[in-house]
Amino acid sequence: MHLETPRLLIRNFVHEDSGDLQEILGDCETMQYSEPAYTLPQTRKFLDSFCIASQGGVAVVCKETNKVIGYILFKETHKGVYEMGWFFNRNTWGRGYALESCKAVIAYAFETLNAHKIFAETIDGVKSVGLMEKLGMQQEGIQRSHTRDLQGNWTDLYLYGLLEQDFFQGRQV
Questions:
Q1: What is the 3-state secondary structure (H, E, C) of the chain?
Q2: Burial, 66: exposed, middle or buried (Cβ in 10 Å; 0-12, 13-18, 19+)?
Q3: 69 contacts 88 by C-beta, under 8 angstroms
Q4: Strand order, beta sheet including 81-88
Q5: In a 10 Å sphere around its CB, with 0-12 CB exposed, 13-18 middle and 19+ buried, how is residue 141 labelled?
Q6: Which residues is 121 bridged to in the sheet?
Q7: 1 contacts 58 by C-beta, under 8 angstroms
Q8: 17-39 CB burial, b ≥16 within 10 A, e <16
Q9: Global pTM?
Q10: pLDDT digit string (tens) for 72-118?
């Protein structure tokens, strides 16, 4: 994948991205709604086996700094159905990079890959749900008290999706 937005380049990961990816996945606050922060060896293994070998995610690069500032999970789970998720360097939060890059990936999925559906899930009922809604995704359900957070507390899992027909009818961003 190679996409460009006004401020960002979205591309496949390369081995040299491990340091920048570690800044993202190694940050406890960034990872608070997912899993414990990664060590550098965990990040390298994830980068090599999932991001590169399985092509399970793409890098978001800031054009101004040429630094990887985000990871977008983008993986076909069934024919025409893609899972999406994201982590961004905490130092870049609040600048609209996640919205800008995810919009580009969604457009690529529907316009180039002829995707039928894109879905996402989260336990973060505020920031992540807010982004999903800005991306035009609709709530498909809430699995109540479905999983545990990092502190071991039971928490809800929010499920969102965007269908091809909704994207092309202009209901997306």
A1: CEEECCCEEEEECCHHHHHHHHHHHCCCCCCCCCCCCCCHHHHHHHHHHHHHHCCCEEEEEECCCCEEEEEEEEEEEECCEEEEEEEECHHHCCCCHHHHHHHHHHHHHHHCCCCCEEEEEECCCCHHHHHHHHCCCEEEEEEEEEEECCCCCEEEEEEEEEEHHHHHCCCCC
A2: exposed
A3: yes
A4: 2-4, 8-12, 57-62, 67-78, 81-88, 117-122, 154-163, 138-148
A5: exposed
A6: 159
A7: yes
A8: bbebbbbbbbbeebbebbeebbe
A9: 0.93
A10: 999 999 999 999 999 999 999 999 999 999 999 999 999 999 999 99
What span, in angstroms and rounded, lies between the C-alpha atoms of 55 and 75?
A: 7
Query: Environment class of residue 168 by beta-carbon count within 10 Å: exposed (0-12), middle (13-18) or buried (19+)?
Result: exposed
Q: Report whether 12 contacts 68 (CB < 8 A).
A: no
pLDDT digits (tens, 9 = 90+) for 22-61: 999 999 999 999 999 999 999 999 999 999 999 999 999 9
Residues 85 and 72 sit within 8 Å (Cβ to Cβ): yes
